[in-house]
Write a sequence for this structure.
């Protein structure tokens, strides 16, 4: 059933949000974002199946590409962060404080 | 070029100003270019003036569709009301470029843009077009005060900008309301001022829209109690910015009341005119009193200018032809006299490096020409007969007496109040003993004399032979007065009707 | 019927993997847990007749991206002491669930309004390399090219950001 | 013939004005470099007034040839401004009243100009002085010749301006400038009354034409209350210009200017403008006798008060200044009791003897090297014989000794007051006459008789050059003979001035028995004799600087009126200004703006607390927002 796939996508997406807002470890946060991307991908592919159109696949592929790019940059930032501060805490970024 | 004479007068300076900003011109080159452009505009203006018939309607009309879907047109035109404000700016601008020789490129470029935008605001025949020019003309002033102003320039810039923006945003909302109301009533979109007059407005929304317009103009004029930006902006601004603000921009507020508020919000205007008239006369007295307490001559002139604007505004609300014509005449007269005074103040500040009255004294002995010129402008400002200041003030007081005796008598006190602070300032700056600072005061140079001469000649000519000017103003004023009188009759008839209904 | 069971099995795995990702304190454990999710998702794709995406998910995501992440985690040699102290984690989690629940509910309500459809395997080359490729390079050419530029930028960016030698002196 | 007169009418005020502009331009263009010789300026300055004087004579003679009821010439030069029903022409009008006025204004003005050539000889800004003087005379001529109140107002303000410029002529000294400011501002207060009066008059009857002829024709349409209001407001203007209670305070201070200026202000121009204006508007004042009553009382009280001041002054010019205020009071008493021609006649005679006295005082001051205190002079009779004799003539005329001119004109006013039933005014008038005689001869005796008080300046004193003494002599002849122009029928005269003014002013002719006339005259002469005798007894043999106590001190300090005004008006004005500027404007008017900006700041501060800087927290906010929106929208879905 299509609806089950979409429900799963929702559950995974919400877990992703949960991960982002409740964890302070950069890696975990980063992977939670990946999780949300994957949830979106699942939705894309489900819809592709629903409409029997392959545009959803293409979009999912593009999302993976973006995820790859993001991974590359994000990991670079993490390395830098670790080198500088020796911590993996997201709370180290607090330049936005008003 | 001559069929688009108004457009040329608007865009020639704006384009020249932008070119100056974008190209690396030296400051002398910039000044020369600005002078040439403003003289070219002056020639165009004189051509416009001589070609102006003065039958009361719009002349030199240019009309092009701009946004057809919303009925916004590029409409320009002049009538007796706008002509003189346009001309005042046109005549006065070249003298700025003659007088201030040591400023930077941006100074001249901003002035040019301001000149063009003001011409646009005065000639616009479409509400949206007017709004655009209305906002554009603030920008150069913003930069001029912010970049070239005195010590408190940032605060002054913020104050003037926030005040005027607040007012004009309310006006924008009111313009939108008018557009929608017009569409609802007639089924087409239009922002044309002439069409708008046909609009019938009722109820609270109409009053709110009226307030939106009035607030924008009251801030610009400035009417008491919206004047508090003025002393700061006038004092901290560079001389030319103050000159532009006081001599022309404030007048556009008055002009806009006549052009927009009277035809569109006739009923509301007649209903609230008394309050406005009181605000005008209170503003006159209030600022006049504040002026005497000033220790800074530029700030004193600022208050004096605000005080005169109160009288000019009063003339608008007296609802008779004498006061309205007087007001319009006074617009030009005040532009020349106060404009000249601020230019003199600029020269004084530049040469003496001080704005304190107490630091000066005895300048009349050092610089008789300067003192004489200043005295003439000052006397025009206090409304001495034989100078331009008298005619307008006399007509306004006359009209005010007819409208409301109390207001008229209070307006009359401007004769006394003005003279008190002016003479006292004149005494402390020009008379008495000179000190080591004023010993070094250099009298006006030939170029400066040349720049001031047209202004002073205008002051005297307008005082001795004002009829040619009045002849061009009066028909347009009469149209407005007829609108008002018609509205009053309608209001009376309605009141009568309601009265009879109640009796039944 | 088999597909039905398979779906539930994979769904359970993927949710468990995701929960593990959130809960494990050490990122290495989280990453491993996440790989489980990714692989089960690949299974889901297969169930949805997305043959190419099934492969891509396994190779690129579970394979390339995750191994990159795991490599970095190992490269940094993360000790217990490097990990941030997360004292109120439980509280955050509970609060998060409370806050997110309406979102989930909302999304679920929307999803429910969709027409149902069956998920039987579609033939005719649906989701195969050739057909996806045809669409990708015909109607999605411009986005594809833009993505390629994006990847290039990310590559250079990563080199510039991570490659600063002088810092840390 | 009439054409020439029209031609002259426009030219008369123009002559001095052209002179002023010419001198002004020459002065301004050359003030930094090589200056024109002073002689050139002197000649230029005198040409204008003299030509104007000749033309005034021409106009007068032309007017005389016309039949009595047609003695009115109007020359409208151009439309000045016209808005709606308001039509103002720059027009000039000659009728018996204005032609008489311009006659002596230009004559005496010319003499003063000539005198100034000598008096101002060593002044640095010679040209400026003459420019102002010419402007002054021109303004006065506009005032007198204007064919309507608005044109009159031009001159009215013009003389105010010139008095300011000339009083503060020595502008390095701030007290002089303050005196000038005072003159201008006090005049402006009066001008406010004038303007308001004009406005009310215009809205009542001005629509058919706002010149004297139309106004006179329509005066009967004016409601009584409006007429009263207009008359009083116009009189406020007159009190400002002619220095009556309560606005007389500027005139004594106006002595700060050069002495010829004082002569010009006091004799020929400016101060007489108020009397002229009331006479000019006689067609209004006759309709409301109550207004006239007020005018008369204010006039006679001013006469009394300033005579009291005059008895205690020690500055020669101040004595004369208060005598002017006092004489002006007489004139207003005259016009107030509707004896307009008597009032104008006193203006006429007063112009001669007051110009004479001021110029004489100028000679004394000139001789004493700008010493003005009478107690430092004394015994100058021998050193300055011409000045002494001419001033004596002036003093006799001023104190109303028969047969000098002042006697006739003053007596006519007193007689009119008595005959029209204003016995109290008459009585005060006689008292003031005695006081006038006292303080005038007190001055004469202290200055010219007795022993010199300051030996050194006495030795240096010498008679001024003929350019100064000739005008003195001419004026002395005038002061002696002017009275005979209006010789009462009692002495076999024909009252030439009164009958000449007949068409212009609406005189109220009071008739009385010859015996009453003799009685009134006799009491005036008696008052003169008493005043003169007291002065003679006290001062003729020389006197020292007196010490004032009690009432005398009070009067010496002018009843502290200046201080009172300062306390009542000037200081409150300044403090209101200071309050507005320092307290009210920043806090009340600017209050809403400040409140709004404070509110923005407060809101900003509140929001700062939320900005923790942690990215995760921002994400939480986002999610919370999303969650709330979801909750909201979920309500609408099933």
């Amino acid at each position: 059933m299509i609806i089950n796939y979409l429900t799963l996508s929702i559950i995974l997406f919400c877990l992703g949000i949960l991960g982002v807002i409740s964890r302070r470890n950069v890696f975990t946060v980063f992977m939670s974002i990946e999780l949300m991307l994957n949830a979106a991908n699942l939705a894309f592919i489900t819809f592709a199946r629903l409409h029997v159109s392959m545009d959803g696949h293409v979009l999912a592929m593009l999302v993976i590409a973006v995820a790859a790019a993001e991974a590359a940059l994000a990991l670079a930032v993490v390395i830098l962060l670790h080198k500088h501060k020796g911590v993996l805490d997201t709370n180290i970024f607090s330049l936005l404080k008003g | 070029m001559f069929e688009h004479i108004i457009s040329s007068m608007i865009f020639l300076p704006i384009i020249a100003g932008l070119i100056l900003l974008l190209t690396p011109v030296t400051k002398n080159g910039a000044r020369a270019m600005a002078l040439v452009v403003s003289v070219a505009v002056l020639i165009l203006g004189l051509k416009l003036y001589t070609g102006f018939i003065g039958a009361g309607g719009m002349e030199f009309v240019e009309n092009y569709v701009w946004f057809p879907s919303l009925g916004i047109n590029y409409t320009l035109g002049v009538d007796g009301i706008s002509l003189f404000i346009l001309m005042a700016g046109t005549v006065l601008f070249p003298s700025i470029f003659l007088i201030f020789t040591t400023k930077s490129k941006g100074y001249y470029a901003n002035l040019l843009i301001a000149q063009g935008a003001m011409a646009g605001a005065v000639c616009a025949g479409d509400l949206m077009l007017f709004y655009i020019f209305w906002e554009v003309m603030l920008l150069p002033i913003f930069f001029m005060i912010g970049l070239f102003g005195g010590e408190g320039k940032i605060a002054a810039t913020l104050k003037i900008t926030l005040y005027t923006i607040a007012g004009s945003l309310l006006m924008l909302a009111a313009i939108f309301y008018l557009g929608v109301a017009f569409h609802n009533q007639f089924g087409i979109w239009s922002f044309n001022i002439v069409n708008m007059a046909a609009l019938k407005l009722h109820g609270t929304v109409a009053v709110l829209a009226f307030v939106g317009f009035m607030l924008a103009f009251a801030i610009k004029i400035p009417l008491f109690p919206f004047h508090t930006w003025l002393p700061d902006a006038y004092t901290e601004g560079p001389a030319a910015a103050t000159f532009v603000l006081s001599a022309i921009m404030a007048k556009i507020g008055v002009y806009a009341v006549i052009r927009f508020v009277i035809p569109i919000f006739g009923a509301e205007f007649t209903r609230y005119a008394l309050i406005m008239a009181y605000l005008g006369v209170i503003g006159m007295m209030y600022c006049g009193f504040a002026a005497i307490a000033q220790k800074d001559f530029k700030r004193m002139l600022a208050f004096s200018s605000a005080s005169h604007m109160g009288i000019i505004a009063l003339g608008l609300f007296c609802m008779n032809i004498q006061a309205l014509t007087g007001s319009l005449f006074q617009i030009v007269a005040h532009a020349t006299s106060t404009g000249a005074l601020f230019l003199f103040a600029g020269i004084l500040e530049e040469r003496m490096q001080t704005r304190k009255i107490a630091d000066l004294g005895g300048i009349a002995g050092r610089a008789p020409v300067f003192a004489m010129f200043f005295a003439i402008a000052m006397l025009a400002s206090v409304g001495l007969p034989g100078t331009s200041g008298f005619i307008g003030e006399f007509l306004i007081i006359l009209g005010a007496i007819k409208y409301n005796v109390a207001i008229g008598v209070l307006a009359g006190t401007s004769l006394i109040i003005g003279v008190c602070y002016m003479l006292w300032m004149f005494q402390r700056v020009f008379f008495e003993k000179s000190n080591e600072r004023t010993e070094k005061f250099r009298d006006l140079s030939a170029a400066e004399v040349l720049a001031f001469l047209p202004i002073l000649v205008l002051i005297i000519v307008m005082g001795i032979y004002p009829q040619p000017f009045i002849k061009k103003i009066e028909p347009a004023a009469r149209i407005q007065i007829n609108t008002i009188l018609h509205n009053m009759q309608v209001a009376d008839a309605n009141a009568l009707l309601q009265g009879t209904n109640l009796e039944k | 019927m088999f597909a039905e069971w398979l779906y539930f099995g994979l769904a359970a795995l993927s949710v468990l993997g995701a929960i593990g990702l959130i809960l494990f304190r050490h990122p290495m454990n989280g990453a491993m847990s996440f790989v489980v999710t990714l692989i089960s998702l690949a299974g889901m794709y297969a169930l949805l007749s997305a043959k190419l995406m099934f492969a891509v998910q396994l190779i690129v995501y579970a394979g390339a991206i995750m191994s990159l992440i795991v490599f970095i985690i190992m490269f940094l040699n993360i000790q217990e002491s490097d990990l941030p102290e997360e004292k109120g984690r439980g509280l955050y989690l509970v609060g998060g669930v409370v806050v997110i629940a309406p979102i989930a509910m909302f999304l679920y309500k929307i999803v429910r309004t969709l027409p149902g459809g069956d998920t039987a395997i579609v033939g005719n080359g649906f989701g195969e390399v050739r057909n996806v490729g045809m669409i990708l390079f015909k109607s999605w050419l411009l986005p594809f090219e833009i993505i390629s530029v994006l990847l290039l930028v990310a590559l250079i960016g990563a080199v510039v950001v991570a490659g600063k030698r002088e810092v840390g002196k | 013939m009439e054409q020439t007169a029209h031609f002259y009418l426009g030219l008369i005020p123009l002559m001095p004005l052209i002179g002023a502009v010419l001198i002004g331009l020459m002065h301004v263009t050359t003030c930094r470099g090589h200056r024109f010789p002073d002689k050139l300026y002197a000649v230029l300055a005198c040409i204008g007034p003299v030509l104007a004087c000749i033309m005034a004579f021409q106009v007068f003679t032309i007017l005389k040839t016309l039949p009595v009821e047609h003695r009115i010439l109007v020359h409208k030069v151009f439309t000045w401004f016209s808005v709606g029903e308001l039509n103002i022409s720059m027009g000039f009008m000659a009728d018996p009243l204005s032609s008489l006025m311009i006659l002596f204004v230009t004559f005496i003005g010319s003499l003063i100009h000539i005198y100034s050539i000598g008096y101002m000889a060593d002044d640095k800004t010679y040209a400026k002085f003459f420019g102002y003087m010419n402007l002054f005379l021109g303004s006065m001529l506009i005032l007198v010749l204007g064919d309507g109140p608005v044109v009159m107002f031009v001159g009215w303000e013009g003389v105010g301006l010139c008095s300011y410029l000339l009083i503060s002529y020595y502008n390095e000294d701030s007290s002089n400038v303050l005196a000038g400011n005072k003159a201008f501002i006090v005049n402006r207060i009066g001008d406010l009354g004038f303007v308001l009066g004009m406005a009310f008059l215009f809205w009542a009857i001005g629509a058919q034409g706002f010149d004297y002829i139309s106004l006179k024709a329509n005066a009967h349409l004016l409601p009584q209350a409006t007429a009263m209001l207009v008359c009083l407001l116009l009189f406020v203007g007159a009190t400002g210009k002619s220095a009556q209670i309560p606005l007389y305070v500027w005139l004594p201070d106006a002595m700060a200017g050069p002495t010829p200026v004082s002569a010009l202000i006091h004799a020929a121009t400016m101060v007489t403008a108020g009397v002229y204006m009331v006479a000019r508007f006689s067609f209004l004042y006759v309709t409301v006798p109550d207004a006239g009553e007020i005018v008369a009382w204010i006039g006679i009280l001013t006469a009394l008060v300033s005579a009291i001041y005059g008895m205690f002054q020690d500055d020669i010019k101040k004595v004369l200044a208060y005598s002017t205020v006092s004489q002006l009071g007489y004139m207003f008493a005259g016009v107030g009791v509707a004896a307009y021609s008597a009032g104008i006649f006193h203006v006429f005679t007063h112009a001669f003897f007051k110009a004479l006295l001021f110029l004489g005082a100028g000679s004394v001051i000139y001789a004493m090297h700008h010493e003005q205190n009478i107690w430092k002079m004394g015994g100058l009779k021998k050193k300055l014989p011409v000045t002494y004799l001419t001033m004596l003539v002036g003093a006799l005329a001023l104190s109303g000794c028969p047969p000098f001119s002042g006697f006739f004109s003053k007596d006519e006013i007193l007689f009119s007051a008595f005959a029209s039933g204003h016995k109290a005014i008459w009585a005060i008038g006689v008292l003031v006459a005695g006081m006038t005689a006292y303080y005038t001869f007190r001055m004469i005796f202290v200055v010219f008789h007795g022993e010199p008080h300051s030996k050194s300046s006495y030795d240096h004193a010498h008679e001024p050059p003929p350019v100064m003494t000739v005008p003195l002599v001419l004026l002395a002849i005038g002061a002696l003979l002017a009275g005979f122009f209006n010789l009462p029928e009692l002495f076999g005269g024909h009252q030439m001035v009164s009958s000449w003014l007949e068409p212009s002013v609406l005189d109220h002719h009071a008739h009385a028995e010859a015996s009453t006339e003799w009685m009134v005259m006799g009491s005036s002469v008696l008052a003169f004799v008493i005043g003169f005798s007291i002065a003679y007894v006290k001062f003729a043999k020389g006197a020292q600087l007196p010490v004032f106590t009690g009432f005398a001190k009070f009067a010496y300090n002018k009843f502290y009126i200046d201080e009172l005004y300062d306390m009542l008006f000037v200081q409150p004005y300044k403090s209101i200004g200071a309050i507005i500027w320092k307290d009210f404007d920043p806090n009340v008017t600017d209050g809403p703006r400040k409140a709004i900006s404070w509110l923005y700041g407060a809101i900003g501060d509140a929001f700062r607390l939320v900005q923790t800087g942690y990215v995760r927290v921002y994400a939480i906010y986002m999610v919370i927002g999303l969650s709330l929106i979801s909750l909201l929208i979920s309500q609408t879905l099933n």
